[in-house]
What we know:
With 145 residues, this protein is α/β, with parallel strands linked by helices. The chain has eight helices and five strands, in the order βααβαααβαβαβα. The protein has a single domain, classed as 5'-nuclease (Rossmann fold, 3-Layer(aba) Sandwich), CATH 3.40.50.1010. α7 (116-119) links the parallel β4 (110-112) and β5 (128-130). The mean pLDDT is 94.
Amino acid sequence: MALRVVLDANQFVSAVLVPVGHPAQILDAWRRGDLDLLISPPILAEVRRVLLYPRLQRRHGWDEARVDGFLEGVWSAAIPTPGTTIVEAVPDDPSDDKYLVCALEGSAQYIITGDRHLLGLDPWRGIRIVPPAMLLATVKPNTSL
């Protein structure tokens, strides 16, 4: 059984902006089947919103249709969770709770983030919360990453 992971919105954005960086390597591992990616409607909505920021669109060059196509591909190939469980674990940034919800609902082993509010919770209910480089270092010996 593949490792189940949740990526925060900035990991998706980083993967789009830097196609050889750690977040992109994690998405590549998912596409190869080395990882199971969990996604929820609230996470997908945030990724869309951030990718459509004008300053980021200038950097990645994707129009709205390409962003939507990318997200449709993620949604159709990832493992969806409803994103409806109530979790209040990040008082300094309640919008981060959606990642914990997705991980909880989908029985994730890892949340991949650079967000200090989330990283400060590691581990949370048995779920590791780590930066992308740490996930890659952790799983590399055990997979084809």
